[in-house]
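ingest -> validate -> predict -> emit
validate: passed (alphabet ok, no gaps, 87 aa)
predict: started
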Amino acid sequence: MTVDIAAETPEADAEETFEPAGDAADGPSIIYTAYFTAAEELVEHIRAADVLNLGFRVESYLVAPEEGSDTPQIEFEFTLLSELPER
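emit:
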């Protein structure tokens, strides 16, 4: 596991970024952010958050290939929250 600043672009299969806790009035604070290229790893993190009764946010995006392939790769950003967000 590598720890980076959240503003940096992910470069590995899974990277975690620790962010400072926000104001309680802003909603749940962020515990960490991880980046995945494999959906299986994302699902493991979602299940763990559910077991721990923590909230999470998932975003997906396409990344242009660096060299060789013309097919963009899908990547996931998983953000673990300190509590379940309000709906």
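The beta strands are 3-4, 14-17, 30-36, 55-63, 73-81.
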